[in-house]
Protein 1
Amino acid sequence: MFNVKLYFIVLCLLFAATPLLASQASLSASRTVDVTAENAVAAKNRATIEARRSLSAEIIRRHATESPDTVDAALEGFTDADAQVLVKSTSIENERFSATSYNATITINLDRQALARWFARNGLEYASLSDDTAAGWTAVYFNLPEGLNQWKWLNVKLREAGVQNRAGMQIFRISGNQIFGKVPDTTARNFAANLRKTGAIVYNIGGALRVSLPPELTRPEQQ
């Protein structure tokens, strides 16, 4: 079981998280469409449907942490009806019509909760989702059945891997063999990747990272 001594050690051995160089990915995407049909109304309808579906898939790929092949497999059969469930808002600019064609720039914004549910239904992991540019937080839960030894082991492995930056990680509660913390959304993807490199098991469930270390990974004979 953890004790007060561990609490102070935790404060000194905060996990490292390498910040992403790019700004936080948004839940928006745009595309210029140019569609011809039997009339302008039909062309606009077709363009809207195609843009909504393809742009939703683009945003899904942007946030997915799985391999491209895995994401593509999950997107097989992805329809406009699927996309409509995810879309929070649509805006259209620079519309131009002819008798049989339609040209415009279409922008969609996805709903964060709806997108998180889509990832969960399809068994996919994803980077932190945010529908604005404000810095948010990703919750992190550490399950360490071997207690303090696993915590120390993991910090050593991260330092050996050259991950030295301790900024961003905050611990706010320790309960038994569990540690509860949070990292900025902007570092969550690299944070999870660095943990996996050590052999940790990391799941993204509903936007929160759940981390565990197999006991056999950190026992003395395995180090």
Protein 2
Amino acid sequence: MAGGNLDAFKAVASGEKEIDVNKKVKVGIIGTGWIAEAHMQQYLQMPDVIITCGADLIPGKAEAFFKQYDGQNGFDASSVKCYPSHKAMLDAETDLDAVSICTYNATHAECAIYALEKGVNVMLEKPMCVTTEEALDIMKAEKKSGKIISIGFQPRLDPNMQKIKQIIDSGVLGKIYYIQTGGGRRHGIPTPFGTTFIQKDTGVIGAMGDIGCYSLDMVLNAIGYPKPLTVTGYTSNYLGTDPHYYEMDGKPAEYADLFGVEDFAAGFVRLEGGIILDFRIAWAMHLDTPGDTIIMGTKGSLRIPSTECWNGSLDDPMVIYTEVAGSQLQTTVPKIYVDPQDPKQSNFYKKIRSFLDAVKDGGTAPVPTSQILYNQAIIDGIVTSSKLGKEIVIDLPEV
């Protein structure tokens, strides 16, 4: 049996969709920083992808980015055209099928909207954007273009995350009425490559946009993404603005002066259906964890052990609490393990692959904006409520 046929047989046997290599997807990458590396590594594994172009505001950065992958899986860096901005790239490259947008938070919306206006499908990294208004503008551009835009929430493709939704859908917990979620790092403000994450003009939002959106998506997706109605929020940045914090890591103390986002946030959210969401997230805190995720229902509850950022992994098994015939029971949900040596089992691979399949087949976005709008509205609501010092009503118009 020829090698190609054998690979196809293995794909079918494992349940993996066979890739049509005769139908190529021309892809560009906007923003060539750290997260773009993860996108590039996945694209290089896909035989139906042609990386044609890239853009970055920093002169020479895009060229250097692609050069490091030259020769990998037949990739020819010299065939990739590089541009100084997303507009220059999208104006020149008139036959693009899709782009990965990997820029800093503040420019997510403008890049996504321009790509959609040019008739290009979009894989947009999280957070979707930084305000509810931007999210609505993206959705309007999406609707007008008829193209696909999927938001980069790869954790929901993890089998353990999917198990949470399966448990909820099974009805074993009954009616859900209270959820506690969040998480965070004891010492983990992200400054490995500079300060774009922590500066107000580039990051705009901090811990919530980086890792808080993941924990929100985990629980909201599990319960069907009910609409948020009201938010009481709190944000602070005590540790991020402390020079001593950075000195502990051998980083410049001046980072404290540049810190303009939140390193901790909390929110109390009322959702449709009489559900209460109690949320907290931290980049830095004098605590190991602000608590496990708890989903409480009228027939049972689910405890999901805390992690730093809900990136798709669980350190310990989940536990379901129920009562049967007058006995209080605890059922451990076995953790689902994936082969770490199989790159196609990674959540990031699945994120990119599911997006490309939707583009090729005319399908729907794997992580649709109609859901992540609610995620963004909660984050924006926490920021606004914290500034005003009172509860706010979330009023979202139809798009």
